[in-house]
Amino acid sequence: MEKENIAVGLDIGTTKIVAMIGKKNEYGKLEILGVGKSKSLGVARGVVNNITQTIQSIQQAVLEAETKSGYKIKDVVVGIAGQHIRSIQHSDYIIRKNAEEVIGGNDIQLLIDQVNKLAMLPGEEIIHVLPQEFKIDGQSDIKEPIGMYGGRLESSFHVVVGQASSIRNVGRCIQSSGIELSGLTLEPLASADAVLSQEEKEAGVALIDIGGGTTDLAIFKDGIIRHTAVIPFGGNVITDDIKEGCSIIEKQAELLKVKFGSAWPGENKDNEIVSIPGLRGREPKEISLKNLSKIIHARVVEIIEQVFTEIKDYGHEDPRKKLIAGIVLTGGGAQLKHIKQLVEYITGMDTRIGYPNEHLAGNSEEEISSPLYATAVGLVMNSIENKTQSAIKIDTGVPEKTSVVRAPVILKQEIEEVENEVESQIGNKKEESTETKIRRSFFDRYVDKIKDFLDNAE
What mean pLDDT comes out for the span 334-354? Predict the structure, then answer.
């Protein structure tokens, strides 16, 4: 009997860390087996700034996911975000030795390898090289060049670049948590996989993922990724503003935002007031909901305007680049009351809230289909593409205490068996699409590079 392809995604966010274990069911939908969530300590604006605290938070989330699912996590696909991320457009070409032979996956790989050698700014590293349209001997707008004849193969690329040290810090945290890193994915791309339909990507759509520390943007048109950006503001700056504006502590500010907050000040009447308990026997504080909404509104407008500037920079106002499907909002910030109306008002574009439930199995918990989990669901989908066995069933014969100890030694034999099985299955795989091939081979090399670096650093 064929072993299940168990996939694991790890979303290292500024406010929370989520470990999610899932597999595809017989209908091709994603069945979530277990989710672990912990408060993210040691991450600011999507970047690790305290290794020890981040490791503890990862271990806590991983342990919870393992306990709930009954699976032991072996490796994870992790999301990369942060203000150090930038993207560039680049075109490159190769001249093939034999134009009489059809173009194969190795030709495309050769072209991608060439782009990977691009000179970057000091301390920067290429994360993704995503081919857009191909050109063969001057014939443009080719989406799938494999199987065609031609001497000169050219392509435009969307290249995502990040800070090498930040990426290595994430790798270090994961390895120190007793698990392996099987792939890196830009978080807005993972969220896009989870909440966007193929029709939207064809028509043209901007995905805005409002997280705790960053707001991520991914723009698609004609089914191809056209632009990505990470803006270093998110839900946390709104909470900070409430804290300062109302002179209350952070915990109370967060609760106020979630329970009573609105992005549209006109909604609240002047006499709507909420009372907040005072600290250590002090008098309770009375806060006007109208003032609260004004504070939230001012900051959300600032975030949306920055995102809209990026959308205009992409060229949305050009009729050929118009985003017909408008905007999809996701992430924790998308749950803010009236944010959809505010975004439509500022941008003049159709807007909807993106839930990851389209790809989830029908029996999934309601909580998982919240915009909060969009990135984690996307990372699990990405891990499924890797076709590896990322988690293995905990043997119930082993006493419970032993089963959840984070000691890789206990499972070494099981892991080796799984690895051998995965290797033996590689030969039987069907031909994969160009994109999947490119992603996999690139990630394999990239992850190996990080592993080498970490091993040598020790």
Answer: 95
